[in-house]
Structure formats: structure tokens, C-alpha cells
């Protein structure tokens, strides 16, 4: 768990370093919307 969390944390830091702030916020929002849609579809099924 700790190794996975550290690797994902460093990957997210690199991701946010490469992208501008607006692009990073849009990407996070898109991922959140996709997760919400998937959760609602699973709830309906």
C-alpha cells in the first residue's frame, strides 16, 4: 500500500508539473465526472 501510494503520488506530482494548472483542473474534473457516471450506471444495474 505505501509503495503504491508513493508511486501514484510521485506520478501525480509529475503530471501536475508538466501540465498547466487549468489543464490539470480540467483533467481532474473529467475524471471525477467519468467516475460519477460509472457509479450511477453501476447503481442502476
Automatic annotation (TrEMBL):
The chain crosses the membrane at residues 23-44. It comes from the Bacteria. Keywords: Membrane, Transmembrane, Transmembrane helix. This is Uncharacterized protein.
